[in-house]
Amino acid sequence: MIRLKQLMIEKLLEDPSLTNRLLELTNIKASSLESFIHTNKETLNLSTILRIIEELFPSLQHELMNEYILSLNPNKKLARFCLEYLNTTRQDDVLDQHLKILLNSKSSINREWATIYLLDRKQTTREFSNSEVISLLHNTRVHTLEMKLYSKMIAAYCHFEDHLLQEIYDAIHPLEPKLKKIKDPYIKESYTARFGLIMTPISLHFEHQNDLLRYSQMVFKCSGQKALKCMTHIQLGNSYLISHYDNALFHFKKALELSDHIREVQIKRSLNFLDNYWGKQPKHLNHESSAPKDIHEIAFFHIQQGEPLKAIAMLQTIKWEILSKSEKAFHLYFKGLALNDRNCLIESVRYFKEGDMMHYKNIPLIALRNMGEDETIIEALK
């Protein structure tokens, strides 16, 4: 017997009152719960199963779900819905196994889902380039509503890396009413959260604060999805970076609570910039790192401490040619502050624009205004 079901039997025998609690929590019939535990019938949807595990065995969710998913009938709908669970929770090894199984399913719908999720997987692992993935998506005919929507989201992820934000907006914005037509509650909620996560940074880019808050709520309202919520808190923190210290700090701390190791590094760098910008003591400076972003924050700290020569010495250790456009923009911003050089700040604005980081161009523009730059020039730079 699958471990999830065995543990449920033991738990309910140990405390019979749990049965009624689960029925109230999930709003299902006793017969459906009984059938789920004692047969191989798919009497519960994915959202309900996850709610039960969260209630009874919260620390074992991934372990129990991974085993349960690999036991599912590959020709039934629950098997394809579980692709989304494995993808968003980054259960990559099990996802790879499950994809192989579903690609050989007797169900044409399950094979279609597996084909699209496999493309997403290969883009994530860099086995395929962004252009290859977009081309394959364009040439792959899909028939289900869900895969039509998900294909466009995968293309959006590819375009993000190429900073094609207007293209993303044009392709993704019309999807919102179609999300409401998805029947399975888990897929509807998860795809709605994905949509919100895509639209949040686009709203930040175009400086549409009301839209940013609305789209972020689409993510926060979904159950679970720690990774998506973490990224959304990062975007909200960035939106308040230069306007409201406490709001930015709140969202970065929330993101930190939800983060994995990779995101943790990114968030700590954002916290360093936030503290430096507002003249506070940064708590996460990494003096051992040779990464340009970490060196930049140490240089910024020296600038705020009134030590411009130390800041310039730090900046000179970075090779210009290895920097991305966004890193060049920040590099020029810090150099401009240290040298009180308007030309560096103007160039910083240009690089922020070229890197499609329109919200961040305000950082050097504020510095130019504080330096006494002519307002006509500042307006022209916007």
Number of strands: 0
Helix content percent band: over 70%
Oligomer: single chain
Mean of pLDDT: 93
Please indicate the percent range of residues in DSSP E strands (runs of 2 or more): under 5%
The DSSP helix count reads 23
Radius of gyration, taken over Cα atoms and rounded to an integer in Å: 24 Å
Main β-sheet description: none
Succession of helices and strands: HHHHHHHHHHHHHHHHHHHHHHH
Spatial shape: elongated
Helix and strand composition category: mainly alpha
Q: SSE layout and pairings?
A:
Layout: H1 3-14, H2 17-26, H3 30-38, H4 46-56, H5 61-70, H6 77-88, H7 92-102, H8 108-124, H9 130-139, H10 145-161, H11 165-172, H12 176-179, H13 185-205, H14 209-220, H15 226-239, H16 245-258, H17 261-277, H18 292-304, H19 308-315, H20 325-339, H21 342-354, H22 362-370, H23 375-381
Helix pairs in contact: 6-7, 6-8, 7-8, 8-9, 8-10, 9-10, 10-11, 10-13, 11-13, 13-14, 13-15, 14-15, 15-16, 16-17, 17-18, 18-19, 18-20, 19-20, 20-21, 21-22
